């Protein structure tokens, strides 16, 4: 019995050292060596200060900025420590009410815009943290942003086009626009 107990304790200590110390250090070291930007949060730096991440959305409500997808995280929007979907299905009245409120907010910010509202401007992503919108969602907002900033729609659309990332490897995913990078480009204009 004592031999079994000793073997169990030795195995526990050995596996704790391997899986709790050696493996995490090796993976962290490899990540830092091979992908330093991604391993450190894919931060976006402006004037030497981190202003956000390419992986986590930010809430923009000022009409002069492009707005991203709604966030489903709590207790505050785009909370990176609380990645979670809303778990509201299409027949849930709470989702219907939330979408209606979001559509009303978009119409209030740009009353003259009669185009259909793209779905990604009124529904949260699965993680609740999506930093990107579709080119259609960006195009929907071009008239509002151009008007508030005193720019032509052509100028703003050109910035959207420059900020649009295509499919990964030419075939995976959909074209997308990182909202923070686009808004930073607008501020730099």
Describe this entry's structure for a reader:
With about 190 residues, the protein is mainly alpha-helical. It has 2 domains: about 1-40; about 40-189, no CATH class. It has 6 helices and 5 strands, in the order H-H-E-E-H-E-H-H-E-E-H. It has a 3-stranded antiparallel β-sheet with strand order 3-5-4. A two-stranded antiparallel ribbon has the order 1-2. The mean pLDDT is about 90.
List its salient traits:
mainly alpha; single chain; 8% strand; 189 residues; two-stranded antiparallel sheet
The ordered H/E elements are: HHEEHEHHEEH
Spatial ordering of strands, largest sheet: 3-5-4
Number of helices: 6
The share of residues in extended strands comes to 5-15%
What class do helices, strands and sheet pairing give? mainly alpha
- Rg value: 22 Å
Number of distinct beta strands: 5
Mean pLDDT rating: 88
Question: What distance lies between the first and last C-alpha atoms, to the nearest angstrom?
Answer: 75 Å
- Fraction of residues in helix: 40-55%
Low-pLDDT residue spans: none
Shape: elongated
| Largest sheet data | 3 strands, antiparallel
Give the tally of structural domains.
2
């Amino acid at each position: 019995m004592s031999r079994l107990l000793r073997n169990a304790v030795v195995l526990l200590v050995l596996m704790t050292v391997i899986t709790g110390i050696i493996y995490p250090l090796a993976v962290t070291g490899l990540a830092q060596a091979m992908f330093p930007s991604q391993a450190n949060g894919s931060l976006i730096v402006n004037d030497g200060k981190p202003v956000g991440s390419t992986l986590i959305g930010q809430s923009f409500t000022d009409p002069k900025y492009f707005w991203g997808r709604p966030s489903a995280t709590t207790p505050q929007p785009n909370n990176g420590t609380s990645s979670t979907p809303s778990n509201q299905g299409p027949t849930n009245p709470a989702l219907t009410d939330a979408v209606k409120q979001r559509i009303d907010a978009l119409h209030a910010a740009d009353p003259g815009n009669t185009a259909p509202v793209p779905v990604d401007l009124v529904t949260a992503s699965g993680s609740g943290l999506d930093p990107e919108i579709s080119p259609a969602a960006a195009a929907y907002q071009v008239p509002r942003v151009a008007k508030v900033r005193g720019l032509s729609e052509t100028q703003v659309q050109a910035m959207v086009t420059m900020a649009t990332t295509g499919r990964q490897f030419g075939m995976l995913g959909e074209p997308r626009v990182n909202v923070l990078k686009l808004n930073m480009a607008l501020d730099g204009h």
